[in-house]
Write a structure and sequence with these properties.
The chain is an alpha+beta fold. 43% of the residues lie in helices and 17% in strands. The radius of gyration is 17 Å and the shape is flat.
């Protein structure tokens, strides 16, 4: 079933696109604040409902890291995440070898993998450079 592209959904996607280079992976509260800048009469519940609908339809990806906060990503193809423990920036990470590793796990343990998602933490190159 095709989802209607309401103005609310369009504003949410626009907010994610606008802020992806600044903030990367936005929480619902951050999305709400960004949408309110352009459409101040929108309710928080409307943003929550539409963000969840966009995630359920596969138009955006929901990620939940160690802090338990739901964040959303426009990058919906298979990828992983690295969080800098200093600046708390979340980076997308591509790992080409993961399909082979997943297959090894399945073969060794009899698992049937549905989704493989890895989260890494450490210090990003920007913060490392500041420390030196």
């Amino acid at each position: 079933m095709q989802q209607r592209q309401t103005i609310q959904k369009q504003l949410i996607v626009k907010a994610l696109e606008k802020l992806k280079h600044v903030k990367g992976h936005l929480s619902i509260d951050e999305i709400y604040s960004a949408v309110r800048e352009e459409y101040d009469s929108i309710s928080k519940m409307t943003v929550y409902r539409n963000v969840r609908q966009l995630a359920a339809s596969g138009m955006i990806m929901q990620i939940i890291l160690d802090d338990g906060i739901e964040r959303y990503d426009l990058n919906t193809h298979a990828h992983h995440h690295f969080t800098c423990t200093k600046c708390e920036t979340i980076y997308d990470v591509e790992i080409e070898e993961l399909p082979e590793f997943s297959q090894q796990l399945q073969d060794a343990h009899g698992f049937e993998m549905e989704v493989a998602h890895l989260f890494f933490t450490g210090v990003c190159d920007v913060c490392k450079a500041k420390k030196q």
